[in-house]
Amino acid sequence: MKKLALLLLSPLIILVALKGHTAELTTDATASNSQVPAAEQKKNKARLEALAVLVKRKQYPQAFSLADRLAQLYEGDATFDFQYGMAAVETRHYDEALFAFERLVIGAPQQARYRAELARTHFYLQNLVRAKIEFEKVLAQKPPAAVVLNVTKFLEQIEDLQHSVQPRFMFAMDMAGGYDSNIN
User: Fold this and answer.
1) Where would a tag sit more exposed on the chain, N or C end, judged by fewer CB atoms within 10 A?
2) Cα separation of 60 and 58, whole Å?
3) How far apart are CA 97 and CA 71, in angstroms?
């Protein structure tokens, strides 16, 4: 009976995963958030509010520390992922930021801000090809002028970096002649 229930639930689980949400698979179909004690739910809500305040105040080290502790509970929640990603990228935890922003872009590809932050994270990871692709996708979404200016600066930096590391072939030939009267 449990196998049948899992087979029937598997399309729903896949659909939820494709929408950018994580779902913990359990054999008990009745397991839900309602089993978490009310006091624990209240504490977690307060932690999420504290995370939002820390990110808003640009206190990124504290925000990253808090978000890292909450990640197992809230990964997949768009608001949490954005705050976690911002705190991670600003504290140079680029791998964590990359995963958070990738989840956001998969869940909401039309959201230019998520894609811009993903592109910026790729840039900081020196993945210049992918950063350029994502920045160009941001520009294709017709963002506000300030965003266009910022993205253009990143694209110029990418071009400069790519040209500075491109292999170049240079040939030089020197010839010299002279006279020495010393016998030694």
Assistant:
1) C
2) 5
3) 12
